[in-house]
Amino acid sequence: MKKKIRIIINPISGTNKQIKAEKAIEANLNTEMFDSEIVYSNKKGHLTTLAKDAVEKNYDAVIVVGGDGSINEAAQGLIGSKTSLGIIPIGSGNGFARHLNIPMSLPNAVERINQFRIKSVDTVKVNEQSFVSISGLGFDAHIAEKFSLAKGRGLWNYTKISIREFFSYSEKEYTISIDETTFEKKAFMIVSANANQFGNNFVIAPQAKIDDGQLDVCFVSKPELLQIPYVLFKILKKEIDQTKFVQIKKAKKIKIELNDKVFMNIDGEAIQQSKIINIAINPLSLSVIY
To answer: Where do you find CATH 3.40.50.10330 in the chain?
Structure first.
């Protein structure tokens, strides 16, 4: 019996690879194995609606053709269901796909769907919003907000904005509770990592696992200008946790108290939060094709 899958394409995902992705699907998807359909998201929140509809109609999988933001949006409708999430990565960073070792080559990514290996992974709740990969507070959230307002997408535009904003952004004071232990902490950014990276192999939590029932909470301090090349080198070598710039604590629950409402970077999207941010792991709550 064929597996029933819904392929959702985000036509405004970050890199304009949608047409190439469609051609790769047409050329490589195993039609003897799958009864498939292709649909298109057309507004914010539409991927969630399409994913929920697939769950209600007992689809075996929803395949997202997009980046981390698209994956997050679809996952909102899949968490807690038996419908699996598949990924054909065409985003700017593709952090979740890279953590799962899904190929960046489109034909190879489709072949990974054909193999249809599935496993359950953790997701994370931030107040009323869930994420699958990573969330950040501080500098990365500031950049995510600026990036969302920029005309161009892609790594180069993200890098330009980061360089421009780096010099004026300073470390902030936070009141944090991790699994009932409360303390004050000054940080350039605080990253709650389910997966290990932001995207583009910028690995902030090298030891993070997406099925261990824990978050890697990364407290990042601001480097001096001349230290930035070293920090970038260690990030790309997956060794940033071995430096003085990142301290990592394991956690199942986190509470962060702020003086004002702020934006958070949630799977690459800037989303405004309240003055109190509650973060909690949701163990093995999403089925994924890997």
So the answer is: 3-116
Residue 45: CB atoms within 10 Å: 11
- pTM for this predicted structure: 0.93
Q: How many Å from the N-terminal Cα to the C-terminal Cα in the chain?
A: 21
The CATH number of the structural domain formed by 129-282 is 2.60.200.40
Q: Of how many residues is the chain composed? A: 290
- Measured distance CA(130)–CA(144) in Å, rounded: 17
What is the tens place of the pLDDT at every residue in 90-132?
998 899 999 999 999 999 999 999 999 999 999 999 998 999 9
Whole-number Å distance between alpha carbons of 84 and 60: 6
> Residue 58: how many CB atoms within 10 A of its CB?
10
Per-residue tokens: 43: 């507004």
By the 8 A CB rule, do 102 and 46 touch?
no
In this structure, which topology does domain 3-116 adopt according to CATH? Rossmann fold (3.40.50)
Give CA–CA dist 198/68, Å, rounded: 9
CATH 2.60.200.40 segments of the chain: 129-282
In the structure encoding, which two tokens stand for residue 192, read together? Answer: 């709650």
